[in-house]
């Protein structure tokens, strides 16, 4: 019974946040998304879903700031995903048409790229840079160490950490 009362109180709190701030947040999102109403509506919904999923709610009087923080992260994620998608589609366009993957395969690969990008973004800068220099620029560990001003052993340690982060992201 106590759990039902708590659940009802949280639902009422989310409802109040929605009623008080959704229209304002929609306008804020639309402004950040170049006026795109569809993306703004999607991210508005995603903001409230993220709020509910995390179970963290703002203290009284801080609803806008709290929702803006969530929405800002979603806008960044959307832009990052679109940049990755654009680069991926550009790379596909350079390949012969008969080698083009199916739309399902393209969506799967894009999802994997986004997850790996997010995993690398959560790592310290030198760790992700070492991984990118090695895997995407083809530098040897020795070259990565010289470029980043770190030891060969540090590069090995960073590569292990980055690889583990990518594998965990793929398991999610």
Give an overview of the whole structure.
The chain has 172 residues and is mainly alpha-helical. It has 2 domains: 1-98, Rna Polymerase Sigma Factor, Chain: A, CATH 1.10.1740; 101-172, Arc Repressor Mutant, subunit A, CATH 1.10.10. Helix content is 80%, strand content 0%. The chain has 7 helices and no strands. It has helices at residues 2-32, 37-54, 63-93, 103-121, 125-135, 141-148, 152-171. Helix 4 packs across helix 7. The two termini are 34 Å apart. The relative contact order is 0.07. The model has no long low-confidence stretch (mean pLDDT 88).
Helix content: over 70%
Note the main sheet. none
| CATH class descriptor name of the largest domain | Mainly Alpha
Rg (C-alpha, Å):
21 Å
> pLDDT under 50 segments (min length 5)?
none
Name the shape in a single word: globular
Number of strands: 0
Pfam families: Sigma70_r2, Sigma70_r4_2
Keywords: Sigma factor, Transcription, Transcription regulation
InterPro entries: RNA_pol_sigma-70-like (IPR039425), RNA_pol_sigma-70_dom (IPR014284), RNA_pol_sigma70_r2 (IPR007627), RNA_pol_sigma70_r4_t2 (IPR013249), RNA_pol_sigma_r2 (IPR013325), RNA_pol_sigma_r3/r4-like (IPR013324), WH-like_DNA-bd_sf (IPR036388)
Domain RNA polymerase sigma-70 region: 17-83
How would you summarize what this structure contains?
This protein is mainly α and 172 residues long.
